[in-house]
Predict the 3D structure of the following.
Amino acid sequence: MTQAPVLDVKELKTSFFSSDGEVPAVDNISFSVNKGEILGIVGESGCGKSVTSLSIMKLIPQPPGKIVGGEILLNGEDIVPASEKRMREIRGNDIAMIFQEPMTSLNPLFTIGNQLVEGIILHKKVNKKEAFKIGVEMLKLVGLPRAEQIMKEYPHQLSGGMRQRVMIAMALSCDPKLLIADEPTTALDVTIQAQILSLMKNLNKKLDTAIIMITHDLGVVAEVCQRVIVMYAGKVVEEASVRDIFKNPKHPYTVGLLESIPDVREKKERLYSIPGNVPKPGAIKQGCRFAARCANVHDRCFVEDPPLYKAADGHHVRCFLHAAGGEN
Amino acid sequence: MSEVLLKVDKLKKYFPITGGVLGRKVGEVKAVDDVSFFVNKGETLGLVGESGCGKSTTGRVLMRLLEPTEGTVEFEGQDLTKLKAEDMRRMRKEIQMVFQDPFASLNPRHTVEKILEEPLIVHGVKDKEERKRRVREMLEVVGLNSYHAKRYPHQFSGGQRQRIGIARALMTKPKLIIADEPVSALDVSIQSQVLNLLEDLQKEFQLTYIFIAHDLGVVKHISDRVGVMYLGRLVEITEADKLYEKPLHPYTKALLASIPIPDPDVQQEKELLKGDLPSPANPPLGCAFHTRCSACMEVCKTTRPELVEIEPSHFAACHLYNK
């Protein structure tokens, strides 16, 4: 932990402004990503995990959205006030992103080579021929056979898994320090998902790129991540190493989430289920956001919003039950 | 002891591929290719497979939402494929379906009451008061409130909408429910609520389920028996525990090994399946899986293996076990 983190997010708050007023989708979250680390962000729909990643890329549609507070330090530089021109340099060079839908994130009208080379020429200041060579190498790196031919093919000629590999190649083509992967395997079949996950793990080792893995699938987290952040309704509710999250979860939400997954290894008589529904962003104004669904709720939880408490080294929980360790 | 409710024999569904100016048939997609299985009364049969394996098409052909190309579907001894359209409509009182997308499967312009009432009107419950009463009862059964009847689908969350979808399927008091990916659009915490509800309903109304899903964990949890499909074919079918503990078919093995396990300590070195799913329009000759199989033999490339009983009640279609 002597090295400065690649990314340090401090009290980030991103809101959307609608006719009903301000809706904070991400509310005061802080976390950091170290060099070469794979950090997982998990949560259900509407918890703010995708808004977090878009905030880091500064791709929040504005209006209605806006980063209203906090800092995003990338290698020490705060990119919240950065200009669009500066951001264009950062995106691709320092941070790259891959999206959930490999079907829609490639332009169907251009060949793979065309799209892959575009970014390389722009960021690496090389000529077309060299860029093509780099492109072919990148495709080989992500395990695509017959890379030269694929450069000349169109997205529709590739399968979902291959398209996601192309996306990864594209994202990594300018050696970013940080790769944000927003649900990269959700649209893929399990056998293909396993291939992509193992590819991402290998690339992480080989290139030492830090990865933020955003997902709703706890199995994926256990498979690839080293550290995990659990988000609920725009807040970080728990942060710990992968082992601690799965072996020693503290927050009632994390516990409930783990209990409610059907496991292929053993058959539970009955699945645990968290009562109620995932709240809409901004619906809960006061107290702990999980209070209404929590099994261990106290009166205090409805009034006061718990801070992040320290449960152990590197293990933080936003719950009054674990107040003993002191505030973080 | 167990009574067979539904028996599917050599079911096929081919979709034509048309091409050229005249729209002539130039090929066919064998979405379901020679599938046979049975479902016992009161049990849950899970059907799993990757996208394009034909599991949803199978569900739709059973309901005759799609006409089968060949084969028979016997429901309580009656061949559904031979029924006239009108008789089939009456038969659908007994077989109902729950769909994947709770956002698309409910009419946004109808109130919940109207949505739930419709199956009763179709199946001849004439008394209006009776219909209203049954709608309210059913809402309570699936864990909603009777005052929800006057609301519109957009006023509900995904999980609640799926409950409405289930309520609609139950309105006609069916014997068999075909659930096509009923929980895959839901969040984890909501998913378990709906799975528990399905189990409770099964006990309460002695329902039989055909549960179609791609999530192997979910299928294991809810199913008594599980069938694995690959490129339109059933490659293995047996009791859920047996399938997960001792899979026979190489595809089932690979599929099970691919699931990410929510436990960082169990990071087994996986044998990853190579390559992609071949196109169903042009499936490989012989065994459809031979292009990706690690135990591929010469015979696999030429002869299609039949689904045979390898151990008691454990069926698999693989040459490895054909002695």
User: Anything to note?
Assistant: Residues 190-207 of chain A form the longest helix (18 residues). Chain A has a mean pLDDT of 86. The longest strand of chain A covers residues 21-33. The radius of gyration of chain A is 21 Å.
